[in-house]
Amino acid sequence: MTPEYVLKLSHDTVLLVLLVAGPALLVALLVGLAVSIVQAVTQIHEMTLTFIPKVLAVTVVLVVMLPWTIRKMVDFTVGLISSIPTLTG
């Protein structure tokens, strides 16, 4: 296993994590920001008001993105497993 291979594998792994987790985190950030603006304008500071919309929005994003996420993770895993014979030589 060469240092170049380890670096490429690390890069691909970090990229996959960003691609898989990014949409859910971005939606949580945007919904939290929108709810915070609404709370600041209306002066309603209820904890569940920020929690429930974030959970619902992230759940919707995860359900919508699930087929794509599974495909990306399966492709990565298959590529990783198929490269094992080349590492022993």
What keywords describe this structure?
single chain, 89 residues, mainly alpha, 90% helix, elongated
Topology:
Blueprint: H1 3-42, H2 47-82, H3 84-87
Helix pairs in contact: 1-2
Structural commentary:
There is one protein chain. This protein is mainly alpha-helical. The protein has a domain at 23-79. It contains three helices and no strands. It has helices at 3-42, 47-82, 84-87. The longest helix has 40 residues, at 3-42. The radius of gyration is 19 Å and the shape is elongated. 0% of the residues are buried.
Unreliable stretches covering 5 or more consecutive residues: none
Rounded to an integer in angstroms, the radius of gyration calculated over CA atoms is: 19 Å
Shape: elongated
In total, the number of strands is: 0
Task: Work out the strand percent.
Answer: under 5%
**What is the count of DSSP helices, taking H or I runs of 4+ residues?**
3
Helix content class: over 70%
Distance between the termini: 9 Å
Structural class designation: mainly alpha
- The H-and-E topology, N to C, reads as HHH
Major beta sheet summary? none
Average pLDDT rating: 92
Would you summarize the structure shown here?
With 89 residues, this protein is mainly alpha-helical. The chain contains 3 helices and no strands.
